[in-house]
Amino acid sequence: MPAKLTVDLHPIFRSDRDIDNAVRNVIFRAAGENVPLVEIIPGKGSGKLKNRVLAMLKQPHIKKLYRRVEVAPGNDGMVLVHLR
């Protein structure tokens, strides 16, 4: 079992559908494999992608899978999702 899963959204930042699928897939995979931490890398940029990811993580069917979400300390371009 890996200690964490990481998904980098830089290569797919232009496609909203691909972003949603990538985030949803990594969260469900981590929950299914009992991985305690997911790193989502939207990058620093203007913050639109990070806000999209944070809004997506607030959806009820995803929210019940994790304990908390935080922006990585010292790195605004990474979102950490701590699973249950």
Automatic annotation (TrEMBL):
Domain of life: Bacteria
PROSITE patterns: SMR
Domain Smr, chain residue ranges per copy: 1-84
Pfam families xrefs: Smr
Organism of this sequence: Saccharopolyspora erythraea (Streptomyces erythraeus)
Protein name: Smr/MutS family protein
Record-annotated membrane-spanning stretches: none
InterPro entries: Smr_dom, Smr_dom_sf
SUPFAM superfamilies: SMR domain-like
